[in-house]
Amino acid sequence: MATLQLNNITKHFGDTAVIKGIDLEVNDREFVVFVGPSGCGKSTLMRIIAGLESATDGDIVIDGQRMNDVGPADRGLAMVFQSYALYPHMTVEGNMGFSMRLAGVPKEERRAKVLETAKILQLERLLDRKPKALSGGQRQRVAIGRAIVRNPSIFLFDEPLSNLDAALRVQMRIELARLHEKLNATMIYVTHDQIEAMTMADKIVVLHDGVVEQVGSPMALYHHPANRFVAGFIGSPKMNFFDVELISTSPEGVQVRLPGGGECTVPVNAQALENVSSESTPVESQPALELGIRPEHLVLDEAGALSGQIEVLERLGGQTSLYVRMGDLLVTLMTDGDVAYRVHETIRFGFAPERAHLFAADGCALPSLAQHPLAGLTRHDNRTSGDAEALA
Description:
The chain is of the alpha+beta class. Helices cover 23% and strands 31% of the residues. It has 3 domains: 4-233, Rossmann fold; 237-294 and 352-370, CATH 2.40.50.100; 299-350, CATH 2.40.50.140. It has helices at 42-50, 92-102, 107-120, 136-148, 166-183, 194-200, 218-223, 228-233, 385-391; strands at 4-13, 16-26, 31-35, 57-62, 65-66, 77-80, 154-158, 186-191, 203-208, 211-216, 240-250, 253-257, 263-266, 289-293, 299-300, 306-315, 319-326, 329-336, 346-350, 357-359. Helix 2 packs across helix 3 (107-120) and helix 2 packs parallel to helix 4. The longest helix is centred in the middle third of the chain and has 18 residues, at 166-183. It is globular, with a radius of gyration of 25 Å. Residues 4-234 form the ABC transporter domain.
């Protein structure tokens, strides 16, 4: 059992508030990722959980026990940092077993635990090497192994892949996901990379300016972002946004006028706008609306409601990115890799209304009338019943 509760956590550095009242629950065996732009407070929040920073206010509760006054070494946590922080004069075995050595664990017991962990991380053949003889990915696995041997209740990862090249980051993402399955442990992971968050997390916590913007499964955040910030942050390339004009509301959704004059009814709950329409309210009094559509949901269509000139074209093999100029807007469109368009060509394109999102003037998303079937899916929902029993 390894659960975490944060109750109204705040953190001030002088007069500057960096964490502004965060409440969060992390369940047993969950892989939770804190994600957000630089300066959003994610690493500070991680350090508060670890005990490396003290909260200005609020409670940290681990497995039902309040930990505010408990030191880092006694919280039962293990942290893996961005830098490997390995002792250069020690072997892999020495680095992994150092904490047990300090704790007075007998040599044979220590070695057995290191060997068991080395097998999990595929480091058995490297135990006699020193860090300078290891690759970046191998060093990071040693740092993770050093955490595993402590048998912590919760693993904390603070941007552990940032120092690796792109290929190694992909490999280590896969290895961390496998490690989570194998250890059946509770893990909290900090990153600014939303691709890491989407591919590894059971639950994503999106932070911005010291507050939690949204908590949910990766697919819930992708298909049902709570606001414009989450919509623009989750997904790569980022979502396109268009200013649109409200025409009317109905039980079927909100009808809007698109740039270029086309019309579309977006199937969202219009309750917040139901008393406003172009027929009953002056145009200048109507609420500001923004329509969001992801690049992968825009489709080339000669009868499409939108048009523009290709300004940049990026061929990536299996897919092509088109950057299309529409007045002051540069719209990103993802399409098949073999399209024959060229730069400066004018194209028409559109989208399915159910793929679109509407945001009010305050940035909040109008709720979709249909829940996406994958919105609640996590990595572990793909297990067979036999897998689940084996990992229980």
